[in-house]
Amino acid sequence: MSAVPGKSSRVDRIEETVIAVILGFMTLLTFANVVARYGFNSNIFYALELTVFLFAWLVLLGASYAVKKTLHLGVDAIINMAAPALRRYLALFAVSVCLIYSLLLLKGAWDYWAPYANLPPTSGRWFPTGFVEKFRGQGWYETQDIPVPFFLRWLEGVFNDGDPYEKLPKVIPYMVLPISMALLVWRYIEVAIRVWRGQQDSLIVSHEAEEEVAEAAAKLKD
């Protein structure tokens, strides 16, 4: 039994749309900056920083989506040699390791982002044991060049004691860290459930290239 990607749903379409919009906006922004630089001897001063943040959003959100669709790369030569029962246990072991790793990432992501939202980071070296009581809020930290859109001016009253922001606060671009890591944890839990139920026996798509070629050939015949 090969890996079974998650079925198409409204959630899938939302994720795919968000990823596509980010990629499209990155492309347009980069193209516009090139035109401004070489065509008008000018530039969009915040383009580079915004593109870097958008790329980070694209990668981090795409990581959890790829887990859901079993699109991550992997080597299955040894797994395919094992008996089906053993293959299931190997998959459970692999998803357990990935789940532990993603939980560590979630803790680190929260601890990095939380001060920018004036929220307490967690205590504990590896796994959270509670929340730190005394911490320094950093809601006033801003990005270097990205301006604040008018519809985000309400952030000033929430995170900056009403003082106006000159640039976009870091709480916004960095919020993708806990969101994406929480999604990653949830996706691995979903994979573990599917493996346990016998609906999936691998975290990757076995022989993905061959299957894609066969599917494309079948569509051409139709």
Give a structural overview.
There is one protein chain. The protein has one domain (10-221). Helices cover 58% and strands 2% of the residues. It has helices at 10-40, 47-68, 77-81, 84-113, 155-159, 176-196, 208-221, and strands spanning 122-123, 130-131. A hairpin with a 6-residue loop joins strand 1 (122-123) and strand 2 (130-131).
What's this entry about, in short?
The chain is an all-alpha fold.
Low-confidence stretches: none
How many individual domains?
1
Taking the sheet with the most strands, its summary is: 2 strands, antiparallel
Distance between the termini: 27 Å
Q: Helical percent range? A: 55-70%
Q: What spatial order of strands do you see in the largest sheet?
A: 1-2
Average pLDDT, rounded to a whole number, is 85
Helix-strand sequence:
HHHHEEHHH
Determine Rg (CA atoms, Å). 22 Å
Q: What assembly state would you assign to the polypeptide chains in this entry?
A: single chain
* Tally of strands: 2
Blueprint (SSEs and pairs):
Blueprint: H1 10-40, H2 47-68, H3 77-81, H4 84-113, E1 122-123, E2 130-131, H5 155-159, H6 176-196, H7 208-221
Antiparallel strand pairs: 1-2
Helix pairs in contact: 1-2, 2-6, 4-6
